[in-house]
Design a protein that fits this description.
Layout lengths: L1 H29 L5 H24 L7 H21 L3 H7 L3 H28 L5 H13 L4 H18 L11 H11 L5 H21 L14 H10 L3 H11 L2 H14 L5 H18 L6 H13 L4 H17 L1 H9 L7 H11 L5 H12 L24 H12 L6 H6 L1 H14 L6 H21 L3 H9 L2 H4 L6 H14 L5 H14 L4 H18 L6 H11 L4 H12 L11 H11 L5 H17 L2 H19 L4 H17 L4 H17 L6 H18 L14 H15 L4 H12 L4 H18 L5 H14 L5 H20 L3 H9 L26 H10 L1
Helix pairs in contact: 1-2, 2-3, 2-5, 3-6, 4-5, 5-7, 6-7, 6-8, 7-9, 8-9, 8-12, 9-10, 11-13, 12-13, 13-15, 14-15, 14-16, 15-16, 15-17, 16-17, 16-18, 18-19, 19-22, 21-22, 21-26, 21-27, 22-23, 25-27, 26-27, 27-29, 28-29, 28-30, 29-31, 30-31, 30-32, 31-33, 32-33, 32-34, 33-35, 34-35, ...
Bound molecules: 2-acetamido-2-deoxy-beta-D-glucopyranose (9 copies).
One 2-acetamido-2-deoxy-beta-D-glucopyranose binds next to loops.
C-alpha cells in the first residue's frame, strides 16, 4: 500500500526538483547578480529551492527504500542545495543592496532563513541516523573545492550539527557513526587553516565529534557532557586544538580502532594532495598519531600497500620521506604484519621496496621480531607448494612460494644496517643455517632456471651475514676457494656446504658454541625436509671434527645413530662416514652395541650405496672392537650378513661373504658360539661358488675355507691352484656334515629349496645338485611330508628351460623318490630319528657327473661364454 502511494510522490518530487534546479541556474547565468531585483530574486529562488529539497528529503525517510540508495539520493539533493547555497550573493552584498532599512531587514532575514533551512535539513537527517554525519565530511570536501566565501558559515553549520548530535547520543553506548574517523581527519586539517574563524569552528566541531566518539567507547565522563564549551574555554579550546600533538593524542585515545584506522587512511590520502600545506599537515598529524597509537590500528598491511602504491607513483621527496617514516612507525607495533606485506611483492625487490625495507630496518627495537619473522619465512622452500605457514595470506591462485627468495633479498638490505648488529649477533646461527638451506634448495634441479637467479640473493645475504658478524676473512677465504662461483652447480651443493663449514672452523669462528647448540637443537627437533638433514649433518660433522675430540659426547652420537637409517641416502652415508672415522676410539664410545645394531639395520636399505657404506663402516669398527663386546654381538652380526650374500648387487654379495669370513676369523676363539651361524650361511656360500662374478666366487672360496677350518673339515685341498669342482666340493662338504652336523641337514635342505625358484640359472643348477646330495646323506631323517614338498619343488625344475638343469633335476628327482620309497611311516621315522646317532651311514660317491666339469672346461656354450667374460 505504502509503496503505491509513496512512489508517485517520490517521482513527482524528483521532477519538480530537476525543473527547479535548471531554472535557478539559468537565472544565475543570465542576470547581473549585483542588481537589487536580481539579488532578491536569487535569494527567493534559493529559498524555495532549498525548501523543496527539504520536503523531498523528508518524504524519502521510508524504511522501504534501500538505505544506501536512500542515502545516495539524499546526498545528491544536499549537494545541489549546497550549490545553491554557495551561489547566493554574499551577506555584505545583500546588506548593501537594500533600498531601505526594512528592505535590508527582509533580505537579511531571507538570507538567514536560507541558511537555517539548510541546517534544519541536516539536523533532521542526523537526528534520525548518525550514519548521516558522513554528509558533513562531504560538505567539507565540497567546500574546499569551491573556495566559497561562505566557508565560515558552512563551518558554523557543521559545528552546530555536531553539537546537536553530541547531545543526542548522550548516555548511549551503541552509537553507529562509522564516518567519524574520516570526518575527524578533515576537521583536524581545518584546525590549522589560515583563517582563524574557520580554525575556531573546526576546533569546536572536533570537540563535539570526540564527545560522540567517547560514547562509542563507553567512556563516561559526564562532567564534560552537557556543553557547548563555556566561553572562557573557547579560546583555550581553539588554541589547544591547533597543537597537533594534543589533537593526535585525543584522537588516538578516543576513536575506536576501526575509526582510528579510517582517520589514518584519510590522512594518508592527503599526503599526495596537490596543496603542499595540507600534505605536510597531514604528514605531521600522521606521525604524531602513529608514534603513540599505532598499536590500535587495524588493516596495517593495507596501509603498507597504499604507501607502496603511492611511493611507486610520482610523489615529492618530502612526502616520500613522510611515507617511509610511517612504515618505520608501523613496524614498531606490528612488525609481523608489515614484514609479511613487504614480502608479498614479487621478486626481485625494486628500488621502491628497498627504500621500504630500509625504513622497516631503521627501528632497532623490533629487529629481533623482524628477524624472527624472516626466519620463519626462510623455513619455506622456494617454489614449493604453500603450506599452512602462510595460508592466511595466499589464495589458491598463487600456489608457489617465492617469499623465501624475497626474504633472502630483504636480508641483504637489513643485515648491514648498523642498528641490527645486536639482533644479527643474537640470531647468527639461525640466519647462517637458514641461508645455507636456501643456497642448498636453490640447487634443486626442478627450480633450476629460476633458481640460478634467486640463488644469488641467498648467497649475497650469507656474505652480508659473514661480513657484518666479524667474519670478513671467512668471506674472503671462501672467495679464494672459488666457493661462491660454484654454488649454482647442482652437484656442488654438498661440497659447498662442507667448504663453508670447514672454512668457518679454520678461522675459529667465535660463534661456534651457539652454532653447535643451535644445530643440536635443530637435529633433535627433527628436520622439515630431508635436505635440511644433509646440511645439518655436514655442518655438525665439521664442527665436531674441528672442535671436539672423538669420541664426541653421547648426545651427538645419538643424532648420528639416528641418521644412519634416515630416509635420505645421503644423510645415511654422511652419518656412516663420520662413524667410520671413529673406529680408533670405538671402545671408548658408550652404547657401542646400539650403534652397531643401527648399522646392521642399514643393511636393509634399498639404496645399494648405503648398504655398501654400512658394510665397510661395520668392518672398520669390528676390526678395532674389543673381543668381549664383539662376542656378545657376533651371532647377530653374522646373521645380518646372510641375506646380503644373496643381494642383487655383486659387490654387495662379495663384500658380505668376505666379511662373514672375517667375522669368523675374528671370533676364532668363540667357535662354539658360531657353529650354528656357520651352518646358517653354508648354503649361500656353497651355491655362490657358481656365481658368474669372479669376485663373488673368490669370496666364497675364501670364506668356505675359513668355515671349514673352524669346523675342522679337511676340505681346503679342494680349492688348491684355483682348480676345483663344484660337485666335489658339495660331495666333500656333505660327507663332512654326515659325520659332524647330521642334525642340521634338514635345515640346509630347506635353505636350498629356496634357490630352486631363483631367476638366476647358476643358482638353480647349483641348488639342484646340492639338494640331491643333502637328500642322499639326510634322507633317512626326512619326514614324508617334507619329502613331498621337496618333490613338488624339484618337479617344477624338471620343466626348466635350461637342458643341463633339466638333466640334473632328473637325477635329483630320482634320488628324492628313492628316499620316499624307503620311507615307511612318519611315526616310525620320528622314532628312528631319535636313535639316529647310533646308526652308521656309508660315505657318498659322486652322483651327477656334473662334478667332473671343471671350471675352465667346457660345460655348456652359455657357461663357457660367461667364464671367458669373467676372465
Ligand atoms: C517521515 O518523516 C515525517 C516528518 O518527520 C514523519 O511524519 C513520517 O512519519 C516519516 N515517515 C516514516 C516512514 O518514517
Ligand atoms: C555514566 O556515569 C554515571 C555516573 O558516573 C552513571 O550514572 C551512568 O549510568 C553512566 N552512563 C553510562 C552510559 O555508563
Ligand atoms: C542509541 O542509539 C541507537 C541508534 O544510534 C538507538 O537505536 C538506541 O535506541 C539509542 N539508545 C539509547 C539508550 O538512547
Ligand atoms: C612527476 O613529477 C615531476 C616533477 O614533480 C613532473 O614534472 C612529472 O610530470 C611527473 N610525472 C608524472 C607521471 O606525474
Ligand atoms: C617497482 O615495481 C612496481 C611494480 O611492481 C613499479 O610500479 C614501480 O615503478 C617500481 N619502482 C621502481 C623504483 O622501480
Ligand atoms: C662488507 O662490509 C664492508 C664494509 O664494512 C663493505 O665495504 C663490503 O662491500 C661488504 N662486503 C660484502 C660482500 O657485503
Ligand atoms: C653395485 O653397486 C655399486 C655401488 O652402487 C655400483 O657401482 C655397481 O654398478 C652395482 N653393480 C651392479 C651389478 O648393479
Ligand atoms: C684338477 O684337479 C683334478 C682333481 O681334483 C685333477 O684330476 C686334474 O688333473 C686337475 N687339473 C689341473 C689342470 O690341474
Ligand atoms: C684350465 O685349463 C687350461 C687348459 O685348457 C689349463 O692350462 C689350466 O691349468 C687350467 N686351470 C686353470 C686354473 O686355469
Amino acid at each position: 500500500m505504502f509503496i503505491e502511494v509513496f512512489c508517485p510522490i517520490f517521482i513527482l518530487g524528483y521532477l519538480f526538483f530537476f525543473l527547479l534546479s535548471c531554472m535557478s541556474s539559468l537565472y544565475i547565468l543570465e542576470i547581473n547578480p549585483l542588481s537589487h531585483a536580481h539579488v532578491a530574486t536569487s535569494l527567493w529562488d534559493a529559498y524555495s529551492g532549498l525548501l523543496s529539497h527539504q520536503s523531498m528529503i523528508l518524504s524519502m525517510n521510508s524504511s522501504f527504500v534501500d538505505p544506501l540508495l536512500q542515502f545516495e539520493t539524499q546526498l545528491k539533493i544536499i549537494k545541489s542545495s549546497f550549490n545553491m547555497l554557495v551561489a547566493i550573493p554574499s551577506f555584505d552584498k545583500v546588506k548593501k543592496m537594500g533600498t531601505s532599512a526594512d528592505d535590508v531587514e527582509d533580505l537579511v532575514n531571507l538570507y538567514q532563513n536560507i541558511l537555517n533551512i539548510y541546517e534544519e535539513t541536516l539536523l533532521i537527517l542526523v537526528s534520525k541516523d548518525l550514519y548521516k554525519l558522513q554528509i558533513l565530511k562531504e560538505m567539507i570536501l565540497w567546500m574546499s573545492e569551491d573556495g566559497s566565501y561562505l566557508q565560515e558559515r558552512i563551518m558554523v553549520i557543521i559545528t552546530k550539527v555536531l553539537h546537536f548530535a553530541s547531545r543526542e547520543v548522550r548516555g548511549n553506548t551503541s552509537v553507529d557513526a562509522p564516518c567519524l574517523g574520516a570526518l575527524a581527519a578533515e576537521l583536524c586539517l581545518l584546525c590549522s587553516h589560515a583563517d582563524s574563524s574557520i580554525t575556531e569552528q573546526a576546533s569546536f566541531g572536533l570537540h563535539y565529534l570526540l564527545h560522540i566518539a567517547k560514547c562509542q567507547t563507553g567512556k563516561n565522563d559526564s562532567h564534560e557532557h552537557n556543553c557547548f564549551p563555556p566561553s572562557s574555554d573557547v579560546a583555550f579550546l581553539s588554541k589547544s586544538f591547533q597543537d597537533k600533538s594534543k589533537i593526535s593524542q585525543r584522537i588516538g585515545q578516543t576513536l575506536l580502532p576501526s575509526l582510528l584506522t579510517d582517520f589514518v587512511w584519510s590522512l594518508l590520502k592527503k599526503l599526495s594532495a596537490f596543496d603542499y600545506k595540507i600534505a605536510s599537515d597531514a604528514a605531521s598529524l600522521l606521525k604524531l598519531t602513529l608514534e603513540n597509537h599505532a598499536q590500535k590500528l587495524i588493516m596495517v598491511s593495507k596501509i603498507v600497500d597504499v604507501i607502496y602504491k603511492q611511493l611507486c607513483e610520482n610523489s615529492s621527496h618530502c612526502m616520500k620521506h613522510a611515507m617511509l617514516q610511517i612504515i618505520t612507525l608501523l613496524i614498531r607495533t606490528s612488525p609481523k604484519k608489515v614484514i609479511f606485506q613487504l614480502m608479498d611483492y614479487p621478486v626481485p625487490i625494486n628500488d621502491t621496496l628497498t627504500l621500504m625495507w630500509q625504513a622497516a630496518g631503521s627501528e632497532a627495537k623490533v629487529a629481533p621480531h623482524v628477524l624472527k619473522t624472516i626466519l620463519l619465512v626462510l623455513k619455506g622452500k622456494p617454489g614449493e607448494r604453500q603450506e599452512n605457514l602462510m595460508e592466511r595470506r595466499r589464495s589458491s591462485l598463487d600456489v608457489t612460494n617465492m617469499m623465501p627468495v624475497v626474504a633472502s633479498q630483504a636480508l641483504c638490505t637489513l643485515l648491514p644496517i648498523a642498528s641490527y648488529k645486536k639482533a644479527v649477533a643474537q640470531f647468527f646461527p639461525h640466519l647462517l643455517m637458514a641461508l645455507m638451506l636456501q643456497l642448498f634448495y636453490s640447487g634443486d634441479l626442478r627450480l633450476k632456471r629460476r633458481a640460478l637467479k634467486h640463488n644469488q640473493y641467498a648467497q649475497d645475504a650469507l656474505r652480508a651475514l659473514l661480513n657484518c658478524s666479524g667474519l670478513q676473512e671467512v668471506d674472503i677465504a671462501l672467495k679464494k676457494k672459488n666457493c661462491w662461483n660454484q654454488f649454482s652447480q647442482a652437484l656442488y651443493q654438498q661440497h659447498g656446504v662442507q667448504l663453508i663449514a670447514r672454512t668457518l672452523c679454520e678461522f675459529k669462528f667465535p660463534q661456534f658454541p651457539e652454532t653447535l647448540y643451535y644445530l643440536y637443537k635443530l637435529s633433535v627437533e627433527g628436520p622439515r625436509r630431508s635436505e635440511d638433514s644433509i646440511v645439518t649433518v655436514i655442518f655438525l660433522t665439521e664442527l665436531l671434527n674441528n672442535f671436539l675430540k672423538d669420541p664426541f659426547p653421547e648426545e651427538f652420537l645419538v643424532l648420528f645413530r639416528n641418521w644412519i637409517n634416515d630416509p635420505n641416502p645421503s644423510v645415511s652415508k654422511l652419518s656412516l662416514q663420520k662413524i667410520s672415522s671413529m673406529a680408533p676410539v670405538i671402545n671408548e664410545v658408550e652404547n657401542v652395541c646400539s650403534l652397531l645394531i643401527c648399522i646392521l639395520d642399514a643393511f636393509l636399505c634399498k639404496d645399494v650405496t648405503v648398504v655398501m657404506r654400512a658394510l665397510l663402516t661395520l668392518r672398520r669398527l669390528l676390526a678395532k672392537l674389543d673381543k668381549v663386546t664383539y662376542s656378545t654381538l657376533c651371532n647377530r652380526i653374522a646373521y645380518s650378513y646372510c641375506p646380503l650374500m644373496d643381494h642383487s648387487n655383486a659387490s654387495v654379495r662379495s663384500i658380505a661373504i668376505r666379511h662373514f669370513g672375517e667375522l669368523l676369523k675374528d671370533m676364532c676363539q668363540y667357535t662354539w658360539m658360531l657353529n650354528s651361524v656357520i651352518i646358517g650361511g653354508l648354503v649361500p656360500l656353497i651355491l655362490f661358488l657358481e656365481d658368474k662374478e669372479k669376485r663373488v666366487v673368490e669370496a666364497c672360496k675364501h670364506t668356505l675355507e675359513i668355515c671349514a677350518s673352524q669346523l675342522k673339515w679337511p676340505i681346503s685341498y679342494l680349492f688348491k691352484d684355483n682348480n676345483y669342482s663344484f660337485e666335489l666340493v658339495v660331495l666333500s662338504i656333505c660327507n663332512n656334515l654326515l659325520t659332524t652336523h647330521r642334525n642340521h641337514i634338514t635345515d640346509l635342505i630347506s635353505d636350498s629349496l629356496g634357490f630352486l625358484g631363483s631367476s638366476r640359472a647358476n643358482l638353480r643348477r647349483a641348488s639342484t645338485v646340492l639338494i640331491g646330495y643333502l637328500t642322499k646323506v639326510g634322507g633317512c631323517l626326512l619326514l614324508r611330508d617334507e619329502i613331498e614338498v621337496m618333490l613338488g619343488a624339484i618337479e617344477r625344475v624338471l620343466r626348466d628351460e635350461d637342458p643341463v638343469i633339466k638333466e640334473l633335476a632328473e637325477i635329483t628327482h630320482n634320488i628324492i623318490r628313492g628316499v620316499l620309497h624307503t620311507t615307511t611311516s612318519s611315526t616310525l621315522k620320528q622314532n628312528f630319528q631319535r636313535f639316529f646317532k647310533f646308526f652308521y651311514i656309508k660315505k657318498l660317491k659322486p652322483l651327477y657327473n656334473y662334478n667332473l666339469f671343471f671350471k675352465n672346461q667346457t660345460d655348456n656354450p652359455m657357461e663357457n661364454k660367461d667364464i671367458k667374460n669373467d676372465k
